[in-house]
Amino acid sequence: MRLDKFLCDSKNLSRKESKEIIKKGRVIVNDNKITDPSFSIDESKDTVLLDSNQVKYEKFVYYMLNKPAGVVSATKDNIDKTVIDLFKEEGRDDLFPVGRLDKDTVGLLIVTNDGDLSHHLTSPKHHIEKTYFVKISNPLSDEDIKALESGIKIGDDVCKPAIVNVLSDKEILLTIFEGMFHQVKRMLKAVNNEVLFLKRVSIGDLKLDEKLHEGKYRKLTDKELQILTREGGKT
Ligand code: URA
């Protein structure tokens, strides 16, 4: 593995920062000062020091992405740009999105290389709640809200009771407990409404960092990762 990649994966740095640190001579590999960011190391054997402190390789990485519209939640696509294309700078080839948001949906998406965590968060067994900010075409009636909150039928499926929070005539927060295909759009359609804009704002207790502009991402903090792994009783 390249030394700059090792360092940015392990120390929560951007590739650019990692390269600069190496070029400044702050990194020692097995007692040798290395200033070439492309220097190749074996992360399981070599000892790497940054400013005299040993750096341990970070096997798993966890990012919060504010997904923009127009990209698909996949690793590869023949037609559209994917969310993973947004992570090119990271130089990793093992990232994938946890679950899916539609191409036109924006907001919170976790991107990782940890298959266990992904499985845990998407397993129907765990019923992890997801909250969406939704702009709708018509105000919801009391009956509509009751229907959504008592478990509405969409096609052959019956949704778990959702939670509706009315923000204004045409804006709601909708919390759902499963992740069926186009679920929010189909739920609103079932009460003769239409979704005009959809943004996921939280997964369990993990909230989208509103400072992240659409298309931007950052690593999860340790605290956020704890929140995520706790969801559904993983720990
Ligand atoms: N529900 C939808 O309809 N679309 C999404 O992207 C997510 C939830």
Overall mean pLDDT stands at 93
Fraction in beta strands: 25-35%
CATH architecture of the largest domain: 2-Layer Sandwich
- Please report the first level of CATH classification, the CATH class of the largest domain: Alpha Beta
Helix and strand content put the structural class at: alpha+beta
Helix content: 10-25%
Which sheet architecture does the biggest sheet show?
9 strands, mixed
Q: What is the gyration radius calculated from CA atoms?
A: 21 Å
Low-confidence stretches: none
Shape: elongated
The number of helical elements comes to: 6
* Ligands, deduplicated: uracil
Tell me the CATH superfamily of the largest domain.
Pseudouridine synthase I, catalytic domain, N-terminal subdomain
String of helices and strands? HHEEEEEEEHEHEEEEHEEEH
CATH topology annotation of the largest domain: Alpha-Beta Plaits
Distance between the termini: 32 Å
**Number of beta strands:** 15
How many domains? The number is 3
